[in-house]
Design goal:
Layout (H helix, E strand, L loop, with lengths): L6 E9 L2 E10 L4 E6 L8 H11 L3 E10 L6 E5 L1 H17 L8 H5 L5 E5 L8 H67 L6 H15 L2 H17 L7 H21 L3 H21 L4
Parallel strand pairs: 3-4
Antiparallel strand pairs: 1-2, 2-4, 5-6
Helix pairs in contact: 1-4, 4-5, 4-6, 4-8, 6-7, 7-8
Length: about 290
């Protein structure tokens, strides 16, 4: 079954690093475009995460974020900020000198000031946690894929409905086509009869004119190609492969053949059916822009 490019998925699980939340959104895009939002400690996993997405999907714009709530499990180290400490000492010594104050600028005094001592999280090797993180991400991507399949099912139902309408309209065009030639022959005879006013009609010349019209207005080839394209499109609706681009190409070909029929047809009813078919093709084209 075809898949939409629109979807959402989320995965959550408590692992050794803390509680991991993976969230993914996807929308239609001509190619595969992946945007990641990761905490600093997971930046080294960017390539692996993108490879996982590529293994599941072929088209779409993906926005994926992973968050880790360490719940105080992270390790930290304290570091002195020598530059800031020197600035505090300089300022305090200046105040002491200018205002003729007493007392020493001590370590106890400086250590109380903001940013003199900072706490930094210790970044350890994230590789041992990749297997756990990948399982959370996989759960997220599977949820996303399930939604894309569900959306794809709805798209397939709509496309199938429109496909049946076009097939029905093409049957009417086919059945109407032979009568167009006969109607032209009758109109030609009537006009000739009016023009020659009782004189004998040149049957051979009439036959030539009708044959020329039949050749110029014959839509058999176009009808055969359209029927073939419609059959292929129906088969694509059952495909589990990414077929959005193929569908788009096929609809372009269908539209081209229908335009040719429109140019050849000298019949009001056929022209009306062509307009209806083109309207359905345009609606189908809008829908397939969101098919993977």
């Amino acid at each position: 079954m075809i898949r939409s490019m629109t979807g959402y998925g989320i995965g959550r699980k408590a692992i050794s690093l803390g509680r991991v939340t993976a969230e993914a959104r996807s929308n239609n895009h001509r190619y595969l475009d992946i945007s990641l939002k990761l905490p600093k400690k997971l930046l080294s996993l960017e390539t692996r995460i993108k490879e996982m997405v590529k293994a599941h999907f072929s088209r779409g714009r993906f926005d994926i974020s992973i968050e880790i709530d360490s719940e105080g499990k992270g390790q930290f180290k304290l570091e002195p900020n020598i530059e800031v400490a020197q600035m505090y000492v300089h300022v305090l010594e200046t105040l002491k000198s200018k205002l003729k104050l007493t007392g020493e600028v001590s370590l106890d005094l400086i250590s109380r000031e903001k940013d003199v001592i900072t706490a930094k999280e210790v970044e350890g090797d994230i590789d041992p946690s990749w297997e756990e993180i990948s399982r959370v991400l996989l759960s997220c991507l599977e949820a996303l894929e399930a939604m894309r399949r569900s959306e794809g099912k709805n798209l397939a139902l709509d496309l199938e409905k429109r496909l049946k309408r076009i097939i029905h309209q093409m049957e009417e065009v086919k059945s109407r086509s032979p009568s167009v030639l006969e109607a032209y022959r009758k109109r030609l005879l009537e006009r000739l009869a009016e023009m020659i006013d009782g004189m004998e009609i040149d049957r051979w010349r009439l036959h030539q004119e009708v044959a020329y019209f039949a050749e110029r207005s014959d839509i058999t080839e176009e009808v055969v190609r359209i029927e073939s394209h419609l059959k292929q499109f129906g088969q694509m609706l059952e495909s589990d492969e990414p077929i959005g681009r193929k569908m788009d190409f096929l609809l372009q070909e269908l539209n081209r053949e229908v335009n040719t029929i429109s140019a050849k047809a000298s019949d009001v009813i056929i022209s009306q059916k062509v307009v209806e078919i083109k309207a359905e093709l345009e609606k189908m084209r809008e829908q397939i822009q969101n098919i993977e």
